[in-house]
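Quick one: structure tokens for this chain, please?
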Amino acid sequence: MKDLVSEVDLIDSDDDYLRRISEEMGLGLSVDELRIIEDYFKERGRNPTDIELQSLAQAWSEHCCYKSSKTLLKRYILIDAFENVPFSSLQIKDLQPPQNILMGEDAGILEFNDEYAYAVAFESHNHPSNIEPYGGAATGIGGIVRDVVCMGATPVALVDPLFFDPLKGIKSKFLLNGVVSGISDYGNRIGVPTVSGMVYFDEDYVSNCLVNVGCVGIVKKSEIIRSRAKEGDLFILVGGRTGRDGIHGVTFASAELSEKSEEDRGAVQLGDPITKEPLIHACLEANERGLLDGMKDLGGGGLSCVIGEMALAGGCGAEIELENVPLKEEGLKPWEILVSESQERMMLSVDPKNLREVFCIFEGWDLLATVIGRATKRGFLKSNIIMKRSMRSI
């Protein structure tokens, strides 16, 4: 058991050692951020484990929490809407959205008519596409489609504005061909058309092409679902298995590209549209039948983020059994299972009374569905690692 989880000697370490920890563990955290974590564990009289530190690093990445862009949006965008409001007192809750915006989580929900609403999501997949253009662009489509599905909406259209350098070299043409192929292949195989887009060429994109992906879905207002859990719910992991692909994807996506970025190719997830297509139908069927309390896609940060975010949104805690997670390969460490960003996975929060019916739906679509945990009253995320009838809580 001791070699499953390692203690990280964080307390009373000097700055150079903290920088080395961040680099060697692929955390993408600054010394100041590690000092905050150090203070937290000092109060608890112990060092963090690798699984705890890796989970925090995923949640604190720019990709997952927008820690720098939120500040810029407040300062340069939102302030324009409140010229007479002191900046120091401006808060997101002060915003009064247009009346047709119903809510926003993984995707925004906009009113269409009395019965239906649109789900709209948009994001970029730049770094993965620069390193692995076909897979990076394809998983960008996969992620944005999941954002729409986890609101209970059926994806109906994709949009893809792309920005490249003027194609003066072999690599530039390689990037363009790979990105376009990844988008078209993935979208066609899940049956969602690309109805709009653009390609723009400029010297400013020599070192970093921009790959933007958007998805629009349609949903009955009565079937809109939230990304949350309630106390007593079971967490059911559905869809693909968990592997090493995509580990540290969010920290890679949040860092600057450099000459060494090619070494991070393993951080790019592997898309599987053949699994995604039935997964969309199964998730929407379970939701339409009123069997789900919550649904969220496993994107950036993997299990550590999806479980924590669903529990937090529902005002509860969570306990998960990492041993129950279906794996692509043997030998994954506990922290790798927790933060892997393997594609085509969704998390459902389900009342135990609905468990059998949910399992029947996913069995009918020939998809994996596994109970991996439960929402608890205590507001903490607890990961259990079970080996040879012994258990360690982290």
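Residues 187 and 253 are 22 Å apart (CA to CA).
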